[in-house]
Write a structure and sequence with these properties.
The chain folds into 2 domains: 270 residues, 2-methylcitrate dehydratase PrpD, CATH 1.10.4100.10; 131 residues, 2-methylcitrate dehydratase PrpD (60s Ribosomal Protein L30, Chain: A), CATH 3.30.1330.120. Helices cover 48% and strands 7% of the residues. The protein is globular and about 70 Å long. 53% of the residues are buried.
């Protein structure tokens, strides 16, 4: 049997009973976190565009999260997948990419249409995520670094590759697909992917535009369409993971077919993903964690800070990372070390408030960004410092703050939200607090809405007990 077929069989055959209790719990928390990110995005400029497009697409059986609007299945999958990544506050697997939103977008839309149980949808979400991670490990090593500090293991291929295949695996489970059909659908997913590393081209633009590469909404919809096509008897490239197609189309990709099935059924990757507690690129979180520690430990106010130097991994690829000017839009702001540090120093709640007009263009934010500089942490030039031999991912980082006539310093290898031993601790209460903060932005002055948020949390954490997943989407609706 081909590796592609075996991988498809694993994605479809695993049952909820096969998941250890810790994985089930982590899956519910990740679902809660992903839903919170989507709700928090609804009032942003991109979020409002998603809502308008969804309304223009007509009505159907699937809910656009937080709105109560019922849309066609493909539209809802796209909308909810897109909303989950707007704030760039969603999970990130070892800085390899995001794929929970695409898997959840497809799973929720199909689950509603088919009136599937909460357990069915949770399992589709979980196996979609697992498929995405394993595909990422197939396409390239998670991260490697040479003795000159050059990193490999992340390409623009990885993000869209994981996302569309994650959504496809999730959708195929709910459609009742066979392993052969999912294998064919995976071949179509490969054909949906862009033919070159557009993330690098995108990253050369200091503005960055208002649409990120590897759009998670398109991934959710693309994976769903591949699954639908395969159920209708169509197919893509046969046994895609057994060929060298990826290596020929995307030069420099290191294929590892064994990674698709390594420890399948005994090794679960979902609990290892990083929860993001700030709305910015995950690469920023390492130095930001050190800076946040200094600010909180010493109670520093923004006007007390004279200068900040954030040192992180070498070979930072995007011009926006080092920019200290006013970010022109939400996407540019989420890729700016200076903006993230300014928001932390000013005590702006992590979420859509980071992208309000005053945060982007106000005098206080502008003054604080001007104090922030960016450089390399010399430890990052030593491959041993990245923890890769131990199966971890460290990003050596350092924050130096001049304030009150003193110099405060903190170093860090991990970021808040990392799962590794030694990283700053977080737990269920922290994930719930993040969800509450993001969900509350929909109706910040409504006591009734705040009470409903409590019920949302309870519903998600008991999603595997729901007979019909529509109970979940109804609970998440502002208009319900």
């Amino acid at each position: 049997m081909s590796v592609t077929r075996q991988f498809a069989d694993f994605a479809l055959s695993a049952s909820y009973a096969d998941l250890p209790a810790a994985v089930r719990h982590s899956a519910k928390l990740l679902m809660l976190d992903t839903l919170g990110c989507a709700l928090g995005a609804l009032g942003t400029t991109p979020g409002l565009a998603v809502r308008r497009i969804a309304h223009q697409s007509g009505s159907g059986p699937a809910t656009v999260l937080g709105t109560g609007h019922k849309a066609p299945v493909a539209t809802a999958a796209w909308a909810n997948g897109r909303l989950g990544n707007v704030l760039d506050m969603d999970e990130c697997y070892k800085v390899q990419g995001h794929h929970a939103q695409a898997a959840l977008g497809a799973a929720l839309a199909l689950g509603e249409e088919g009136r599937r149980s909460g357990c069915d949808v949770l399992m589709a979400f979980t196996m979609g995520f697992e498929a995405g991670v394993r595909l990422g490990n197939f396409l390239s090593p998670r991260v490697t670094v040479d003795d000159r500090g050059r990193t490999r293991g992340w390409t623009g291929l990885v993000g869209p590759g994981q996302g569309v295949h994650a959504a496809c695996a999730a959708a195929s489970r709910l459609l009742g697909a066979s392993a052969g059909e999912l294998a064919d659908a995976f071949g179509m997913c490969a054909q949906y992917m862009v033919g070159r590393d557009w993330s690098r081209q995108w990253g050369r633009d200091p503005d960055l535009g208002t649409l990120k590469y590897a759009d998670t909404g398109w991934n959710a919809q693309g994976g769903l369409m591949a699954a639908w096509h395969a159920r209708e008897g169509l197919r893509g490239i046969r046994d895609i993971f057994d060929t060298d197609s990826y290596a020929q189309v995307f030069q420099g990709v290191l294929l590892d077919p064994a990674a698709l099935l390594r420890d399948a059924g005994s090794r679960w990757y979902l609990p290892e993903t990083s929860i993001k507690f700030w709305p910015c690129c995950r690469w920023i979180h390492y130095a930001l964690t050190a800076f946040d520690h200094i600010v909180r430990e010493h109670g520093l106010a923004a006007d007390e800070i004279g200068k900040v130097e954030l040192r992180s991994f070498p070979m930072i690829p995007y011009p926006r990372f080092g920019a200290s000017d006013d970010p022109p839009n939400l996407v540019a702001a989420s890729f700016s070390f200076a903006h993230a540090a300014a928001m932390v120093a000013l005590g702006v709640p992590a979420g859509p408030q980071w992208f309000a007009d005053d945060s982007l263009h106000g005098e206080a934010a502008r003054a604080m960004r001007a104090k922030v500089g960016l450089g390399d942490d010399e430890r990052g030039y030593d491959p041993r410092a990245w923890g890769l031999e131990q199966g971890e991912l460290k990003v050596p980082s350092h924050a130096i703050v001049h304030a009150r006539g003193k110099v405060f310093e903190a170093t860090g290898d991990y970021a808040l939200g990392d799962s590794w031993e030694g990283a700053p601790r977080y737990g269920q209460a922290d994930v719930i607090a993040k969800f509450r903060r993001l969900a509350k932005t929909l109706a910040p002055l409504s006591d009734r809405w705040e009470q409903r948020i409590d019920r949302m949390v309870e519903t998600v954490l008991a999603v595997d007990e729901l007979d019909d997943v529509r109970e979940l989407t109804a609970a998440l609706s502002l208009e319900g």
